[in-house]
Amino acid sequence: MAAPLRRSLPSLGRTLLSPSPAPARMLSAAASDALVEIKPGEIGMVSGIPEEHLRRKVVIYSPARTASQQGSGKVGRWKINFVSTQKWENPLMGWTSTGDPYANVGEAGLTFDSADSAKAFAEKHGWDYVVRKRHTPLLKAKSYAENFKWRGPPKAEQA
Amino acid sequence: MCLVEVEKSPKPVASCAMPALPGMKIKTNTPVAKKAREGVMEFLLMNHPLDCPICDQGGECDLQDQSMAFGADRGRFTEMKRSVVDKNLGPLVKTVMTRCIQCTRCVRFASEVAGVQDLGMLGRGSGEEIGTYVEKLMTSELSGNVIDICPVGALTSKPFAFKARNWELKGTETIDVTDAVGSNIRVDSRGPEVMRIVPRLNEDINEEWISDKTRFCYDGLKRQRLNDPMIRGTDGRFKAVTWRDALAVVAEVLQQVKPEEITGVAGKLSDAESMMALKDFVNKMGSDKVLCEGNGPSPPADLRSNYLMNTSIAGLEKADVFLLVGTQPRVEAAMVNARIRKTVRATQAKVAYIGPPTDFNYDHEHLGTGPQTLVEIAEGRHPFCSTLQSAKNPVIIAGAGLFDREDQDALFSTIETVAKKFNVVRPDWNGLNVLLLHAAQAAALDLGLVANPTESIKSTKFLYLMGADDVDLDKVPDDAFVVYQGHHGDKAVYRANVILPSSAFSEKEGTYENTEGCTQWTIPAVPTVGDARDDWKILRALSEVAGAQLPYDSLSGVRDRISMVAPNLVHVDEREPCTISSEVKPPVKQQVSSTPFKTVVENFYMTDAITRASKIMAQCSATLLKK
Q1: Which CATH class is domain A42-65+76-137?
Q2: What backbone phi and psi angles, to 5 degrees, belong to B486?
Q3: Which residues form the 4Fe-4S Mo/W bis-MGD-type domain (chain B) (predicted)?
Q4: pLDDT tens-digit profile of B488-518?
């Protein structure tokens, strides 16, 4: 059963719901061995990103499989959703404009192999993040031969 | 595509149908296997039209993927491709039957999951086609799922046909609020518009299906929307005003009424944040009359086990006997019904039902229509008792429709007697459930929006409706001042004096708790319409203008406040079951009345402001509901 496995993960979201300005010691141990130590949010500051975009709230999630396709190539990646909705339709041409420079970054630009690398990225930029649980299918062992298995004489009510 | 080469086997072997045996040498990437797959692909594409550029499935099509991976770059079929007459399956599913590759997934879905024997395979050889034999609409509340299941573009969404290509769409993973199940969905939007809704896998809640109401209600998000604050003038017409003016008018009226005459009603689509703000605001104004519609005259809010699905939705699969009391899960919570059907099919679980005659898509036993049958079971006089007695994991599901009955307390105590008698609640199994109707109900009971609606509304002078459209507006006194805060111009707007536009579930971050007690978030997919604002922000602004400022001004602030009242509501994606047993309840003196149970949901397709505004849902109710 996969359900208990999934449950055993502590709620990652919970730690983030507290009004945390900057979680202490965020980068992994490897970072402290490095010559230059990167403090949370520093990357964002030195790259000249405006103040308001350093305090973004983002959601880290793993996109679900497209409902109509069975291929697994795109399953298991992690993305960052910037929860931005500042959009409008250009009245002249009908194009969509957005007031948020990050709107398309999350949609198209960024994918991560694991939740941890997405988290590290968010920490580096000083974003307040929430990690959403990834849902995986419960796989049951089935075999084609089972369909033809002898299950004894048919019961009266099933006949 | 599953053909592999097995050593010493003269022909390629279909790996999906061949058990692996010890000593077998299997080769998956040899010229023989590749050529065999190419051959299969060529047969599949023989009669398949090359209309991917105008096909709605193009870009998310399994056949496209497969032919890219396994197919050859040319075919040898030069004869006429066959063509098949399109079938009419109703207002939701568009068919282009020429594209069908006869995989029969839709037939299997209809008969195995949806439980309607509408679809089947007709004819043989090249004349083989999927159809309904006589022309017939597909009348299932899950029919939209055949769109996802179809690996080609034979079954596509009718409302979405030619509206957008799927690579233009931005997917936002959120949840559904049209019923209390909280199905996981992905809202696909293009620019500022919701284009479609598709399901997302969650094995604990909706598996991989969603109901038609969830899938096709989205056009309601674009119609009948309130986009500006409005005040009703002396001539009875609404005039658009600025937020400042609207809030000032509401605040002025608030100063004039007595505190105990203020009533706040949360609607069935409200999120926990806005209900928290509403409750805090009304309490701060000095009134405790704040309630959520659908919870009845005396909401059972003392113990969480009294209003939650304690078995959990996935837990229903372990049950072997179901007793449904006054609930029609097929229309109240289609995904829960699918789960019950799955259990019935897999384990031959028995289902007994007490309530008005209704449609079921699995075998069931109709025990009676009124509470008398329930009393008979409680007293052990009913023949069904022996089935319950021998059950290992019995489940009782009571409908939230019972909350509206006068004899609510007596009924629930009878249900508890039954539960005690037949060992329904044990340390390792809790089979006593309530199936809620609306997305807001569970969170409202957690947060304590529990005033009595009839009394509070009858005596009110200031009624604050937060998306509440199904309150009995005839009972509102004529001189009462009614503020309607919501996203749709629905029923209650006709009585409102002031309209404050708010954002719908697809446009805001909100917390919802589903019927099994699982807390989930919505994530905004599109911008709000016009000048609308989030519900809790409007209340926060109003509180400041009215001089009773709420102590939070950010979403995290509201969530901190919620965590003080109901901590389970901030643990997102987690189901927090109730741990206290219902043993501690005081004895009930009320008598069970003999009035039979009523149907709670008359029209599956139209239950709230969004679905009532939807044109697709209107078409469905016109054509699919049996009259």
Answers
A1: alpha beta
A2: -175, 180
A3: 169-225
A4: 999 999 999 999 999 999 999 999 999 999 9
**Structure token pair of residue A33:** 């061995």
For residues B336 and B373, membership in a common domain is answered with yes
- What DSSP state is assigned to residue A51? G
Q: Is residue B194 part of a domain?
A: no
> What is the rounded average pLDDT for all residues in chain B?
93
Q: Which residues in chain A are closer than 8 Å to B314, comparing Cβ atoms?
A: 3
Mutation target vs A (from B67, B523, B534; most A CBs, 10 A cutoff): B523
Q: In angstroms, what CA-CA distances link B290 with A79, B276, B403, B539, B560? A: 40, 10, 17, 14, 21
Express each pLDDT in B311-333 by its tens digit: 999 999 999 999 999 999 999 99
What is the identity of the amino acid at B271?
D
- B20 DSSP assignment: -
Helices marked H in B532-623: 535-545, 555-565, 609-613, 615-623
Domain regions of chain A by residue span:
42-65+76-137
Q: Under DSSP, is residue A3 helix (H, G, I), strand (E, B) or coil?
A: helix
Sorting pLDDT into bands at 50, 70 and 90, what band is A2?
very low
Instruction: Give the residue numbers spanning the domain of B355.
Output: 309-435
Question: Does A67 contact B170 at a Cβ distance shorter than 8 Å?
Answer: no
- The answer to the question of residue B173 being in a domain is no
Q: What is the DSSP letter of A109?
A: I
Beta strands in B105-215 (DSSP E): 120-122, 129-131, 155-157, 170-175, 184-190, 193-199
Q: Is residue B594 within 8 Å of residue B454, measured between CB atoms?
A: no
Closest CA relative to residue A83, chosen from A132, A149, A151: A132
Determine whether the interchain pair B507/A107 forms a contact, defined as Cβ–Cβ distance below 8 Å. Answer: no
In chain B, whose CA is at the least distance from the CA of A62? B173
Specify the pTM: 0.90
Does B503 share its domain with B563?
yes
Rounded CA-CA distance B186/B172 in Å is: 5
Q: How many other C-beta atoms can be found within 10 angstroms of the C-beta atom of residue B548?
A: 17
Q: How far apart are CA B291 and CA B278, in angstroms?
A: 9
Looking at CA atoms only, how far is residue A123 from chain B in angstroms? 19
How near does any CA of chain B get to the CA of A37, in Å?
30
B393-432 CB burial, b ≥16 within 10 A, e <16: bbbbbbbbbbbebebbbbbbbbbbebbeebebbeeebbbb
Total tally of structural domains belonging to chain B: 3
Strands (E), B132-261: 155-157, 170-175, 184-190, 193-199, 230-232, 238-240
Q: Do A67 and B148 touch (CB under 8 A)?
A: yes
* Tokens 């009972």, residue located: B475
ipTM, 2 decimals? 0.90
Measure in Å the smallest separation between the Cα of A14 and chain B Cα atoms.
6
- Running DSSP on this structure, what letter comes out for residue B499? E
Rounded to a whole number of angstroms, the distance from the CA of B191 to the nearest CA of chain A is 5
Which residues does chain B have within 8 Å of residue A61's beta carbon, measured at their own beta carbons?
173
3-state secondary structure of A124: helix
CB contact under 8 A, A68 and B527: no
Residues B375 and B414 sit within 8 Å (Cβ to Cβ): yes
Boundary (domain end) residue, out of B54, B70, B86: B70
